[in-house]
Amino acid sequence: MLVPFLVLARTWPQKQAQATSLVMVAMAATAGAVRYALDGEVAWLPGLVIVVGGLAGAWLGAHLVQRSPNALLQALFGLLVVVAGVRMLWPAGGDASADAHLTSLTPGLVAGYLAAGLGMGLLSALFGIGGGILLIPILVAGFEYSQHLAAGTSLAVMVPISLVGAIRLTRPGLTKWAEGARFGVGAIVGAVIGASVALVVSGSIMQAAFGVVMLVVGGRMAWSAARARTQRPR
């Protein structure tokens, strides 16, 4: 939730907040992925395929960010967070196993993973978020992953994807690496603790609470963007 904090509390421009948050996302995702990997909850082979699509999506998303108005990005980001909050409040699917998908990849699975990665990378670069908002529901509902396996795989593929987005947005001066790294240090601790807790509890109460927070923050950002647009001199 670094982007809302930077935009609402520190009044950063939306594009700069999104680009800088990718640095923190990469650091936190690394720590979280290591914790999940130690418990065997990362699907490495499918993850590699997802990364290929994700890198393409991150490159395209970074290109679109530079050509989109700050107000539009802020409004779309707020709506995306609201949708994600609703999704988190929705009952999760069962704990099916994706073991059959981990050792062999059919052309259909490869195409599905590439498409999921493309969408994940696009959202990550466009809005400066962890693509798990999109990828985890897809892996659980579309590929029958357990919640833990989906979360661990999402974190693992997020590392290179977010770094590509941050690097791509450095040249136009949007990525503030030092600021992102400072937030990232705290995020590493939070990611390890969060992953450890998630691996031993169902997390339904925490998921619902976080969903409510996302609804509030997303609505606040969308409303702020809409108000700024109506107050703009004509």
Write up this protein:
The chain has one domain (12-69, 92-200). It has helices at residues 2-9, 14-38, 44-65, 70-89, 99-102, 107-127, 132-143, 147-168, 177-200, 204-231. The chain has 10 helices and no strands. With 234 residues, the chain is an all-alpha fold. The mean pLDDT is 81. The chain is globular.
Number of strands: 0
Largest sheet: none
Query: What is the approximate shape?
Result: globular
Please state the average pLDDT score: 81
Radius of gyration: 17 Å
Count structural domains. Answer: 1
Whole-Å distance between the termini?
A: 33 Å
> Which structural category fits the helices and strands?
mainly alpha
The helix fraction, in percent, is over 70%
Residue fraction in strands: under 5%
The number of helical segments is: 10
**What is the string of helix and strand elements?**
HHHHHHHHHH
Low-confidence stretches: none
Indicate the topology.
Elements: H1 2-9, H2 14-38, H3 44-65, H4 70-89, H5 99-102, H6 107-127, H7 132-143, H8 147-168, H9 177-200, H10 204-231
Helix pairs in contact: 1-2, 2-6, 2-8, 2-9, 3-6, 3-8, 4-10, 6-7, 6-8, 7-8
Short structural summary:
The protein is mainly alpha-helical.
Features:
globular; mainly alpha; 10 helices; 0% strand; single chain; 234 residues
